From TrEMBL:
It is found in: Membrane. Belongs to the camello family. This is Probable N-acetyltransferase 14. Keywords: Acyltransferase, Membrane, Transferase, Transmembrane, Transmembrane helix. Residues 120-158 are annotated as: Disordered. The keyword Membrane applies. One of its GO terms (molecular function) is acyltransferase activity.
Length: 288
């Protein structure tokens, strides 16, 4: 296998043309994760107790021990399969994973991260594309139609801005026009804090440093541009690979301290919770 040249990787904001590629990439990266989350939730003490109670009730109705045991588990699995992605998003994101359009809003501005491996450093952002000016023929339209068009455009722009605030930003790693990795920055709701999730790297390019490059470059940008002092990373609860990855980058599990140290009062980020309120993500933190 030919080793990937990290210097040739472009780290940029996701555009409208990238949406389908990013969806496919996240779907690939989530294979098995959803099943492990379902198993994790079903094996919690309260969940086991509820399933046992339902099985006891059904045992008196269907007069079959096997059916009484299988039916509650089957219904619980179907329920979690349908609701888990919609309520918690993918890979720890608390926003719905279908709202990518907002992430592309104004993606031409500050659209690239500085890649330290690049021999020819790219400017951070580059020139923004000029906005199209109103066409001359629009000026000849009737005043009523013009006002109506402007009102609709204003409404659409406000809706897109709202979606952008909800969706945050999605950054991708681009190698020769192919999206090989992605990382989501959640919308900033606390000063000095950055929250990342949905880190996925294409299977052919794993263990090549793409994921670490995305995380570290985005953290550097957040520190320089927004003054962030701390990064929180949400990792699916059953993912040991994700846990090892962030520990290698210098992150620590929230609340975990070295001998002789005390937990900081502000060292807290609410983990994502699933069925019956059980956490489905682990929170890792790093000061930058």
């Amino acid at each position: 296998m030919v080793r990937l040249d990290l210097g040739s990787v472009v780290l940029r904001r996701m555009t409208l043309d990238d949406i389908e590629s990013v969806k496919a990439l996240i779907k690939e990266g989530c294979e098995g994760t959803e099943n492990r989350l379902v198993l994790h939730l079903l094996t919690r003490p309260l969940a086991l107790f509820m399933l046992a109670v339902l099985s006891s009730i059904l045992r008196c109705i269907v007069h079959s021990f096997v059916l009484a045991l299988v039916i509650p588990v089957f219904l619980a699995v179907i329920y979690l399969k349908l609701t888990l992605p919609r309520s918690t998003g993918i890979l720890g994101a608390h926003r719905r994973y279908w709202d990518y359009v907002g992430s592309t809003y104004q993606s031409e501005k500050d659209s690239e991260l500085v890649n330290p491996y690049s021999r020819m450093a790219r400017p951070v952002g580059g020139k923004a594309k000029p906005q199209p000016q109103p066409q001359e023929k629009a000026k000849r339209r009737k005043k009523g139609e013009k006002d109506k068009a402007k009102e609709k455009e204003k409404h659409d722009l406000e809706d897109l801005e709202d979606r952008a605030r909800v969706a945050g930003e999605v950054w991708v790693a681009d190698s020769d026009g192919e999206v090989i990795g992605c990382l989501s920055r959640e919308p900033a709701n606390r000063p000095g804090v950055t929250r990342v999730c949905r880190l996925v790297v294409q299977s052919w390019y794993r263990r090549e440093g793409v994921g670490g490059l995305l995380v570290q470059c985005l953290a550097h940008r957040e520190k320089e541009r927004r003054g962030s002092r701390r990064v929180y990373a949400h990792v699916p609860f059953p993912s040991r690979v994700g846990e090892a990855f962030f520990r290698k980058l210098g992150y620590r599990l929230q609340g975990e301290v070295a001998d002789g140290e005390e937990v900081e009062d502000n060292d807290y980020e609410q983990p994502q919770r699933g069925w019956l309120g059980y956490p489905i993500t682990k929170v890792f933190v790093k000061d930058i």
